[in-house]
Amino acid sequence: SDMVGCSFYCSARHTPKQAEHPTMSDHSDVEEFETADAGASTTVPMQAGSVRKGGFMVIKGRPTKVIEVTTSKTGKHGHAKCHFTATDIFTGKKMEELVPSSHNLEVPIVAREDYTLVDLNDEGFLGLMDDSGNVREDLKLPAGHDDAEALARQIQDAWDEGKELILTVLKSMNQEQVNAMKEAPKAD
């Protein structure tokens, strides 16, 4: 069944769904496709034994970064098990998972995108401009755990000082959050 998942994932990745039904008048099927596609393309299957420290994996439906992997052999004919310790990439919460090393687990697709900070309002909403000049205002200052709140304070302070900032937005499993900031290079 693992292969089915993989080939579905690959085909979902490479064939735009719209092309398959150019003349379809009934839209209900297309919507179903889109939801299935969204779910399929946020993670990829990977054998547990291949996931390394510093890599990503899904634990209890959350994208996490692996901070420790230990492998235990169990008995004479038992299968090796991988014990993962990881932190949620958005909340920083520590999580653990035990998986037989031959089993597949889900690895979240994690993307990063840099934006120029062009606005920061009193409610903590950020005005973020991409390379094409499009501004989005749907993300707030990071929050939810100590690191995020420390970063939020740094961003706020630098903004108040009038610095030009580049913020990195981490995106995974349909969730997004600012996870880094740097000062924009000075134009000569």
How would you portray this structure in words?
- The protein is of the alpha+beta class and 188 residues long.
- The chain has two domains: 43-108, SH3 type barrels (Roll); 110-183, OB fold (Dihydrolipoamide Acetyltransferase, E2P), CATH 2.40.50.
- The protein has four helices and eleven strands, in the order αααβββββββββαββ.
- It has helices spanning 2-14, 17-20, 28-40, 146-160; strands spanning 43-47, 56-59, 62-72, 81-88, 94-100, 104-108, 110-120, 125-129, 135-140, 165-172, 175-183.
- It has a five-stranded antiparallel beta sheet.
- The longest helix has 15 residues, at 146-160.
- The radius of gyration is 21 Å and the shape is elongated.
- Residues 1-22 and 24-39 have low confidence and may be disordered.
List the helices and strands and how they pair.
Blueprint (H helix, E strand, L loop, with lengths): L1 H13 L2 H4 L7 H13 L2 E5 L8 E4 L2 E11 L8 E8 L5 E7 L3 E5 L1 E11 L4 E5 L5 E6 L5 H15 L4 E8 L2 E9 L5
Antiparallel strand pairs: 1-6, 2-3, 3-4, 4-5, 7-8, 7-10, 8-9, 10-11
